[in-house]
From TrEMBL:
Keywords: Cell inner membrane, Cell membrane, Iron, Membrane, Metal-binding, Monooxygenase, Oxidoreductase, Transmembrane, Transmembrane helix. PANTHER family: ALKANE 1-MONOOXYGENASE 1. It comes from Marivivens niveibacter. Pfam families: FA_desaturase (PF00487). This is Alkane 1-monooxygenase. The chain crosses the membrane at residues 16-35, 72-96, 108-126, 217-249. The lineage of its organism: Bacteria, Pseudomonadati, Pseudomonadota, Alphaproteobacteria, Rhodobacterales.
């Protein structure tokens, strides 16, 4: 277990600052175009998978009781990323809409590179920020999500996903044998609706209508309009189009991750719409060192769902007796998810083994596969 006092040192938090080293990649792509556009996916995704193969697994667990004041350097990187991402998106949007040396396809490629970072890093950091109790960090999370036109994610994640994960009421729990593309289309439709209904339900408990000013969807809409307005002022219709390209790639990266995190894992239905409590074995766990640096321990997802309030440096990892293990880190798993036959070959045997390990008494999985169990009460 990591010494509590040593966690306050910058050198221990430094690996999680590697995300800043990726910022120059889309800038290089914008300046030179051509093959340099491929540098961002190669280094942001493939390179970390390669480093994982060298660095191996990190199974060391920090002291979960480490005080927050020892986590300054860890928290700072998630907060610094907000202005960094803003400048990266809109600075490059200004540049590429005026760049005569770039073809139209190259301009799209540059903003797709930006989307890889705003999705792979920005939304992951937003996820960490929106889980915090203080208003400042939650606002920073809102800003990051508005830059990728996905503000409803905050409500959907906190009020739907974490409560109903592993049940038919959670669209983000990918079903057994469900291909990524079907999953992607489903969550794009279902998640904004379920998020809005969750906020509407909260307001109704206070005897307030959905259009009340405290509904965060007003804030989400205002921030999104502001982002679109900035893109329009900077680059006109081309700026709006390229901004959407960036956001679409970011959302694609997010939902690939969502797909991987819970594929095929379901909570046991206890009868009458009641489900067992969330446990570590309801999320796929991964201890791959380099990818956990890049994704600020998001792969320790089993512990995140077990203890949602725990900040990322304190997340615990589990062995195969406690939580199911992914064979590779998220980047490699995401690439596999885009090839459904390969994905099923990788993961379906693991899901079946998980069932035998944790639920040997369940003999009929048909309702779990189809998502037709009763909705949780």
């Amino acid at each position: 277990m990591t010494d509590t006092t040593s966690m306050g040192l910058f050198r221990n938090a430094m690996p999680f600052w590697l995300s800043l080293a990726l910022v120059p990649l889309p800038i290089i792509a914008a300046i030179y175009g051509g093959w340099t556009i491929a540098l961002t996916p190669l280094l942001a995704w493939h390179a970390f998978t390669f480093i994982d193969g060298i660095a191996g697994l990190n199974t060391e667990n920090p002291d979960p009781e480490t005080p927050t004041d020892q986590l300054f350097w860890y928290r700072l990187i998630t907060q610094i990323w907000v202005p960094v991402q803003f400048v990266l998106i809109f600075g490059l949007l200004y540049y590429v809409t005026r760049a005569t040396h770039l073809s139209g396809l190259e301009k799209v490629g540059v903003m797709a590179d930006v989307g890889i970072l705003s999705g792979t890093i920005g939304i992951v950091y937003a996820h960490e920020l929106l889980h915090q109790r203080n208003r400042f960090e939650r606002w920073l999370g809102d800003l990051l999500l508005s830059m990728v036109i996905y503000s409803h994610f905050r409500t959907e994640h906190l009020l739907v996903h974490h409560i109903y994960v592993g049940t038919p009421k959670d669209a983000v729990t990918a079903r057994y044998n469900e291909g990524f593309y079907r999953f992607f289309a489903r969550v794009l439709i279902d998640c904004p609706i379920s998020a809005f209904k969750a906020e509407q339900k909260l307001l109704a408990r206070r005897k307030l209508p959905w259009w009340h000013k405290t509904n965060p969807f007003w804030r989400y809409s205002a921030l999104t309009i502001i982002m679109f307005a900035i893109a329009a002022v900077i680059g006109g219709w081309a700026g709006i189009g390229l901004f959407i390209v960036q956001a679409a790639i970011a959302v694609w990266a997010l939902e690939l991750t969502d797909y991987v995190e819970h594929y095929g894992l379901t909570r046991e239905h206890l009868g009458d719409g009641k489900y067992e409590h969330v446990k570590p074995h309801h999320s796929w766990n991964a201890s791959h060192t380099a990818t956990n640096w890049l994704l600020i321990n998001l792969q320790r997802h089993s512990d995140h769902h077990y203890k949602p309030d725990r900040r990322f440096p304190l997340l615990q990892t589990y062995d195969e007796t406690q939580a199911p293990q992914l064979p590779f880190g998220y980047p490699m798993m995401a690439m596999g998810a885009m090839v459904p036959p390969l994905w099923r070959r990788w993961m379906n045997p693991k899901v079946r083994a998980w069932r035998r390990q944790h639920y040997p008494h369940i003999t009929d999985w048909s309702a779990y596969k189809a998502g037709t169990n009763p909705l949780p009460r």
